[in-house]
Amino acid sequence: MDTFFHLFNAILIIVALFFLAILMRRRGALKEEHSMVLARIVTDLCLPAIVFVTLAKQTIEFSDLTPAFLMLFTELSCIGIAWLITIWAGFDRAK
């Protein structure tokens, strides 16, 4: 439940930032050309900070990492299979 609470707070902060941007745009404080700057602030500054703060408060056990390792193994297996198929099909490196 604690992880869900931290996740909910992080999403709530992002939603509040977007609503604040919409409000500022309607009042004329933000223009269309500011939208990319605001999007960069959210993705490059706010999201990493939220992830860091949320993870800093958590204790991570090895069993929590099992799905991540399973996904990594699956992705590497798919890459290997695709590589073998390209060798079997005779594709060159550019293809």
Which features would summarize this protein structure in a list?
95 residues; mainly alpha; 3 helices; 0% strand
Roughly what fraction of the amino acids lie in strands? Answer: under 5%
Task: Please identify the structural class as seen in this structure.
Answer: mainly alpha
The global form is: flat
Overall pLDDT score:
83
Number of helices: 3
Rg of Cα set: 21 Å
The succession of helices and strands, N to C, reads HHH
Helical amount among residues, as a percent range? over 70%
- Give the quaternary arrangement of the chains: single chain
Question: Major beta sheet, specifics?
Answer: none
Low-confidence stretches: none
End-to-end C-alpha gap: 48 Å
Strands, total number: 0
Question: Can you give me a brief rundown of this structure?
Answer:
By secondary structure, this protein is mainly α. The chain has 3 helices and no strands. Helix 1 packs antiparallel against helix 2.
